[in-house]
Design goal:
Length: 105
């Protein structure tokens, strides 16, 4: 099983097992770290906002325009590391990725 490192809103790091083939959001919403994913992955609510560790950003596809529009509206948006986890496919190649749960806005 692949793994993911998740930093919760309290700053505590958790190393979890993660199933490739799912969206990062699908993995995170099953945990109690604060990802609500209210829209269920339709890229319409931004309640799955995460910060991707800078060392992993270049390995992800660039965000599409609809994701960027939502992210730009967030007060805690970071142009370098913010992503909507519903738009990131978790693959074997991403095993070990580190994401931090963004503040609840």
């Amino acid at each position: 099983m692949a793994r993911m490192i998740v930093v919760d809103r309290d700053g505590k790091e958790h190393e979890i097992e993660a199933k490739p083939g799912l969206k990062v959001m699908e993995i995170l919403r099953e945990l109690d770290y604060g990802v609500a994913a209210i829209c269920g992955g339709l890229c319409s609510c931004a309640t799955c906002h995460v910060y991707v560790d800078e060392s992993w950003v270049a390995r992800l596809p660039k965000p599409q325009s609809d994701e960027l529009e939502l992210l730009n509206e967030l007060p805690d948006y970071n142009a370098a590391t913010s992503r909507l986890s519903c738009q990131v496919d978790f693959t074997e190649a991403l095993s070990g990725i580190k994401v931090s749960i963004a503040p609840d806005t």
